[in-house]
User: Fold this.
Amino acid sequence: SQTIHQWPATLVQPVGSPLSLECTVEGTSNPNLYWYRQAAGRGLQLLFYSVGIGQISSEVPQNLSASRPQDRQFILSSKKLLLSDSGFYLCAWSRGTGSTNEKLFFGSGTQLSVL
Amino acid sequence: KQEVTQIPAALSVPEGENLVLNCSFTDSAIYNLQWFRQDPGKGLTSLLLIQSSQREQTSGRLNASLDKSSGRSTLYIAASQPGDSATYLCAVFSGSARQLTFGSGTQLTVLP
Assistant:
C-alpha cells in the first residue's frame, strides 16, 4: 500500500531564517506531487506541483521554492521566512494517470509559525 | 480560473439531524469532485470522489451528488453524530495541469 510521510509536524521559526519541509511517498512510482498551504480561516492554496523529477510548476509567486531531487521526494524551501509564510502546509500525491477517478492523498501536515 | 465556494461557512446541528453541505464551482470542465474531512490541526481525509460522468456517490451515512452543468455539489450527512464534527472541504479536479482547487470549507459542529 502507498503511504505519504511529511515532517516535521510543527515548526516555529524566526523571521529571516531558512525553511526546509520534506515529503516522501512510498509504495508507488512516478507520482504527481503537490504542496498546498492553508492559512488560518482560509481554503487550501496550491503552491507547487511536480509531474516528475526536476519538474516543478509554481502556482503562486512567493518567497518559497520547491524541489524534487528523487522520484518520491518533494521538498519545500525558503531562504528567508516572512511572517506571512505562517500556515499549515500539506503535501499530497496522486497517481498522475489523468483519469477521472484520480484521487489526491494528503500527508498529515506541518504547522509553521514564523515569529 | 476555477473557483470553488462552500456554503455555509459554519453549521451547528443537534445530534441525529440530517444535514446538507453545499459546494459550487465556476468551470464545469472538471475531471472529478472530491469531498474531504479535516480535523483540527490534521491532514485531509478523502470521503467521496464523484467522477465527472457520475451523478452521486454514497459511503455509509454520506451521500454526495454532482450537477456538473450547473456547477453544484452537495454532501448529505444522515443521522449526524458528534464524531462528524470537523471541517468539510469540497475540491474540484480540473485544468490541463489537473489541479485540485479547494473551497474554504464548512465547519460542522454536531452537538450531543
Summary: Chain B has a mean pLDDT of 93. The interface with chain A takes residues 4, 31-32, 34, 36, 41-46, 49, 51-53, 89, 91, 93, 97-105 of chain B (CB under 8 Å). The two ends of chain B are 41 Å apart (CA to CA). DSSP finds no helices and eleven strands in chain B.
